[in-house]
Amino acid sequence: MTVDEYNSAVADYADNIYRFVLKHLKNIDAARDVVQDTFEKVWLKKENIDGQKVKSYLFTTAYNRLIDVVRKEKFQVGEENIDYVKHADPIKNMDLQSILNEALDQLPAIQKTVILLRDYEGYDYSEIGNITDLKESQVKVYIFRGRKKLKEILVSVEAVLEK
Amino acid sequence: MIKVDIYNYEAFYLDYLEGNLNAKDSQVLLSFLDTHPACAAEVVDMADVLEFELPKENLEFEGKEALLEPVFKNGIDKDNVENWLIGSAEGLLSEVENQKLINYTKAHGLEHTSSLYRKIKLQPDLTVVYENKNTLLKKKGLVLGMFVRMLSVAAVLALVFFAVNWNMYQNVPQKYASRSLDENNFQQIKFADEQHKGAAVIEKLMQVPAQENIATKPKTTNKKGLKTTRILKIERLNPVPKLDNNYLAYITMEKPLPELSNYDVLFTEDDLAFTEIKNTEDFIEHDHYAHTASKVNVHDRYKPVTNALSNFTKLPVSYQESTKDSDYKVTKFKIGKISFERKKKK
Q1: pLDDT of the residue at B233
Q2: CATH of the domain at A14
Q3: Is A18 an interface residue toward B (CB < 8 Å)?
Q4: How would DSSP label each residue in B210-240?
Q5: How far apart are CA A53 and CA A41, in angstroms?
Q6: How large is the ipTM?
Q7: Which of the listed residues A53, A84, A115 is the one where a domain comes to its end?
Q8: Residue ending a domain, choose from A29, A54, A84
Q9: What pLDDT, on the 0 to 100 scale, is given for residue B207?
């Protein structure tokens, strides 16, 4: 990967990776650190990276770093770590995306990861499998389970609204 | 053969019960138990323990369906319709399968569920951006890399300088103890080497009009296109070894003098430089020079080399020798901002 390709990757994917990581960590500083580490690692290995496949490499690195942060540093997503402005509005004032984002946080981390990679980045099951080190069939199962759970939450929200 | 004691008899007894002891070891163990009734009493119930098994339970994992990878080969029913709906939203169904699903949902009043699944598509919030992208960008080439490259070039040039020019110029000038020029444009080169010590080559430098053919050979043309003549003359100081014309030719060819076109060209910064002009006694004995002799000491004999290097690298190049140190002769070579120093014991 050339310097130009690397810099293009920064311009093209830094935001995507940041959003992906922030969705998991809910902490701006921690998410920035992961993005920083991710690009630093990619830069160090630039000689071995195909410039055309850098996006996948970046997400794989970011995902692994994310796992490290959560597991090794025992990062806890507690209220004190949440930088998001949680929607204080009643459900009736929330749009579908807001409800889905709230619902997303109720999913297990792996389901959340695969759905984010699928919806945000448009990766297919095979690519998600490569990033998360899962079999394609496992990815499919997690996505299906996650979607079912999200749908159940939507149904329950609708039930609240109808009352 | 095993050695049984009160600390290990239980372990051996278990082995015995499981049939892992041979006849000889079994006999040793049984003899031990015969002589140790308290131990024998402890192991009486062990055979029962071996036969104990946990009661089997009929627990079943009820979520096996959810673990299976969704497939759409079988028909749609109430148990798998949601998988079909998700598969449709995921774009995994063929046109025929989609039509089949639409018919099923209509027939079973599942249009709303179907629409919900189609809405479950997360959109990234594009207002959330990584604000420090500039800190991630890398510049082309590293300052360190450039420095290393410059250093490499300088090192190579320095090597060339020392390997080639050092030998060339270090040896030859030693023959010339001094070069002098008098007001009549006579240059004297004095020799320092043992063989020719005391000898001197006197050169007359003069410029003549091109049309005039009064000069003795060889003729040369200077940079300005003017014909110049070099008149060579050998003068001998006492005591002097014999200096013949062959030797003169030898000097000229091996160590060509700078272009002796005219006075100005000879002594410029592009050529051998001089810094000191003082009267000298060397010529006084000689009638021809006695009244006007002056001496030009060649100070920076590497000037042609450093200038050539400077022209080549487009960087200021200098070479200095210092003998201030009483024990060492210090030479300093500088190219651009990089300098090398060499200390040589006197």
Answers
A1: 37
A2: 1.10.1740
A3: yes
A4: TT---PPSPEEE-TTS-EEEEEEEEEEPSS-
A5: 15
A6: 0.78
A7: A84
A8: A84
A9: 34
